[in-house]
């Protein structure tokens, strides 16, 4: 029985979602992603669309806003705080996989968390995008723009909320180039989980 | 029979050297580190001490020096160029493990290279240092300073020669927190080698 909480950060079009799904399946634990939004929406009374939209806009930093505007935080910051609380509650309940949403940072004080980052060279991701049903663009130029834009959004979101730098190995326990293949990524994550649980007894 | 060349970059006091040794042993291939210095020395007629010392001093960047001083490069740059040639020759001859010396960058144009980075939180490394025979310092303060200084040297060396940023996951195929344990690190590297070789047929 798994004891570890696994956070997975990933660049767009690396298949990180499918790797996270397979890890969750192999360990028999739940994966949380869009469901976090749904739960946040239920807690706040806001629509899922409003919450999803709020995740894409950031200025300054959360610390800056907390310092300057106090309780009148922008919607996006309130959503982040709400989601962070939900992530902490989920972690408290037991092992699970958390996709995105700065899970590594939100759970930084727990010892039972394996923090994973999945990335790949952009040329590889552009090829992968052609087979990925979640990608909306259909032309080479469109794919290039969609990847650049999503990278910028995720990076801005991460850097804004964590004050760390997106893609820095030090934020994670394991950072893997998706070029190695989905099966190998899953295998390495499971090996890391096993090692972590063995070390902690 | 292994086909892959493995480059291992590592922070000081992570046990990266021993991980690299175990990987080389498991695959039955050679590990190159100090031996690179010896080989460079033999090629250049310089003493090993002069070469080892030259690796610790860098200003500007190699590109800047190549542009401004041309053939009158500082000794450290000449040593880097010489070592890079040796690393490329070794890679040409067959699979091996290259420890440090920007191997990932030097061999960036080869497809048969697995680039690994080993790091760990600095608090963990300070504890590890107490059991590491290679560490010279004997007091808490001394260990702290020795780690800080060696990190700065390696980081400066890497950033100077590669124009990339030391510790950025994107420079590697696999970046592992040494806290997961030596055996797990070796296991994951071997899994990555197997996946890479399988993918390439």
Summary, kept brief:
2 copies of one chain form a homodimer. Helices cover 55% and strands 12% of the residues of chain A. With 201 residues, chain A is α/β, with parallel strands linked by helices.
Task: Name some characteristics of this structure.
homodimer, 201 residues, alpha/beta, Rossmann fold, 9 helices, 5 strands, 55% helix
Broad structural category of chain A: alpha/beta
The total strand number of chain A stands at 5
CATH topology of chain A, by name, is: Rossmann fold
Total individual domains of chain A: 1
Helix content of chain A: 55-70%
CATH superfamily of chain A: P-loop containing nucleotide triphosphate hydrolases
Q: Could you report the average pLDDT of chain A, rounded to the nearest whole number?
A: 88
Provide the low-confidence segments of chain A as ranges.
none
The value of Rg of chain A in angstroms is 17 Å
> In DSSP terms, counting alpha (H) and pi (I) runs of 4 or more, how many helices of chain A?
9
CATH architecture of chain A: 3-Layer(aba) Sandwich
Q: Class of chain A, according to the CATH hierarchy?
A: Alpha Beta
Largest protein interface?
A-B, 27 and 27 residues
Pfam families (chains A, B): Cytidylate_kin2
Protein name (chains A, B): Cytidylate kinase
Keywords (chains A, B): Kinase, Transferase
Organism (chains A, B): Faecalibacterium gallinarum
Overview of the molecule:
Two copies of one chain form a homodimer. Chain A is globular. Chain A is built from nine helices and five strands, in the order βαβααααβαβααβα. In chain A, 55% of the residues lie in helices and 12% in strands. Chain A has a five-stranded parallel sheet, sandwiched between helices. The mean pLDDT of chain A is 88. The first copy, chain A, is an alpha/beta fold. Chain A has one domain: P-loop containing nucleotide triphosphate hydrolases (Rossmann fold, 3-Layer(aba) Sandwich), CATH 3.40.50. In chain A, helix 2 (34-44) packs across helix 5. The interface between A and B is medium-sized, with 27 and 27 residues.
